[in-house]
Inverse folding.
C-alpha cells in the first residue's frame, strides 16, 4: 500500500472483551459460546443504534468505531446496562462481564479494518477496566466530560504496552438515583449531606458469605437513595474498595463524602453476626454503631431486617450530625440545606 493509498481518519474506537473468558470456557464451553453469541448480538445492535460500526469480533473480543465520541461512550454505557440485566438472569458463576475501553485517535483504514495507535490505546483502556466497567483515555474524557450525565473517576497515568508516553486513564460510571459525581468530575453539591456505603467485610473466611454481605450493602444503598435530602454514592463506585485496607479519611477524600457506613459479617454454624458503623469522615469518629445476631434460616428475611434496622437507626444520627455541623458555621457561610437545619 503506497503513501497515497493510506486513508487516515479520526475515530472513536471501542474495544471490548470478556473478563474471565478462559474460566467460563473451561467450565462449560457450550453455554459460554451460547451466551457470548447472544451478548455480541445485543452489543452489535446497540452499536448500530448509536451510529457505530463493528469492525471485527474474533473470539470474545469486539472492536467498533464511531464518528462521535459522545455516541461511543453513550453506547458503551447502554451495553453495560443491558448486559447487567441479562446477567441477572444467570447463575453467579455463569455471568459474562465485558470490559470496555474507548479512545479517540487517528487510525488507518484499509479494506474496512482499522489500525494504529488509536486502536492500540483503546485495547489498553479495555485491559484496565473492571468486568462490567468502562475506561477511557484523556482524549475521550476531554470531549465528553460536560456532555454526558456520567461520573468520571481519574485512575492515574499508566504505561501501556507499545505506547511510548504514559496514558491518563478515566473510569466512566453511571449515576444511581440520588447520587452525585465523584473524583475528577463536577463537584458534589454541598447543599445535601453525602454518604458512601462501603462493602461489608466477610470475616468468616467463607466465600459464600460475600454474596450475603454484598446483598445487605446493595439493599442499604437502594433504601438510602430514596431519601431526597441525602446524596448516596453509587454501588459500582464504593465496591472498588472491597477487600482493600484504606484509611476512611482517604476514602472520604476520594469520594468527596461527609459520612461513611461500613460493617462486617461473621458466620458460625447457622448463626450470623453483622456489625455496622456510621463514621464522620471529617473526624474519623463513630456517630453510631450496632451489632446484629440472627439465625440464618432465610437469607432474604435477614437481609431485609438488617437493612431496615440500619437505615432507621442512622437516619436520625445523620440528621443530628448535620444540625451540629450547621450550628458551628457562621450565618453568612450557611448553604440552603444548613439554613433549613438551623431553622429547625
Amino acid at each position: 500500500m503506497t503513501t497515497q493509498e493510506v486513508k487516515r481518519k479520526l475515530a472513536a474506537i471501542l474495544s471490548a472483551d470478556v473478563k474471565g473468558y478462559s474460566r467460563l470456557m473451561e467450565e462449560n464451553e457450550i453455554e459460554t459460546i451460547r451466551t457470548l453469541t447472544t451478548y455480541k448480538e445485543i452489543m452489535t445492535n446497540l452499536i448500530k443504534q448509536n451510529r457505530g460500526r463493528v469492525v471485527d469480533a474474533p473470539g470474545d473480543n469486539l472492536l467498533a468505531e464511531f464518528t462521535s465520541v459522545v455516541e461511543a461512550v453513550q453506547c458503551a454505557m447502554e451495553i453495560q446496562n443491558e448486559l447487567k440485566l441479562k446477567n441477572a438472569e444467570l447463575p453467579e458463576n455463569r455471568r459474562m462481564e465485558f470490559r470496555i475501553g474507548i479512545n479517540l485517535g487517528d487510525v488507518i483504514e484499509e479494506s474496512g479494518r482499522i489500525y494504529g495507535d488509536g486502536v492500540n490505546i483503546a485495547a489498553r483502556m479495555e485491559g484496565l477496566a473492571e468486568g462490567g466497567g468502562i475506561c477511557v483515555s484523556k482524549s475521550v474524557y476531554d470531549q465528553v466530560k460536560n456532555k454526558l450525565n456520567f461520573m468520571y473517576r481519574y485512575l492515574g497515568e499508566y504505561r501501556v504496552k507499545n505506547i511510548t508516553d504514559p496514558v491518563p486513564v478515566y473510569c466512566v460510571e453511571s449515576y444511581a438515583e440520588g447520587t452525585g459525581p465523584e473524583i475528577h468530575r463536577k463537584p458534589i453539591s454541598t447543599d445535601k449531606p453525602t454518604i458512601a456505603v462501603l462493602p461489608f467485610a466477610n470475616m468468616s473466611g467463607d466465600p459464600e458469605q460475600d454474596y450475603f454481605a454484598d446483598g445487605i450493602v446493595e439493599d442499604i444503598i437502594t433504601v438510602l437513595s430514596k431519601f431526597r435530602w441525602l446524596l448516596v454514592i453509587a454501588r459500582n463506585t464504593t465496591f472498588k474498595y472491597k477487600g482493600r485496607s484504606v484509611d476512611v479519611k482517604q476514602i472520604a477524600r476520594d469520594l468527596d463524602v461527609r459520612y461513611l457506613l461500613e460493617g462486617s459479617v461473621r458466620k458460625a454454624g447457622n448463626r450470623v453476626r453483622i456489625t455496622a458503623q456510621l463514621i464522620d469522615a471529617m473526624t474519623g469518629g463513630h456517630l453510631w454503631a450496632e451489632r446484629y445476631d440472627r439465625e440464618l434460616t432465610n437469607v432474604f428475611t435477614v437481609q431485609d431486617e438488617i437493612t431496615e434496622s440500619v437505615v432507621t437507626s442512622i437516619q436520625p444520627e445523620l440528621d443530628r450530625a448535620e444540625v451540629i455541623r450547621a450550628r458551628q458555621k457562621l450565618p453568612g457561610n450557611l448553604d440552603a440545606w444548613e439554613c433549613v437545619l438551623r431553622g429547625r
Remarks:
- Residues 176-190 have pLDDT under 50 and may be disordered.
- The domain at 194-343 is CATH 3.40.50.10610 (Rossmann fold).
- The two ends are 76 Å apart (CA to CA).
- The longest strand covers residues 98-110.
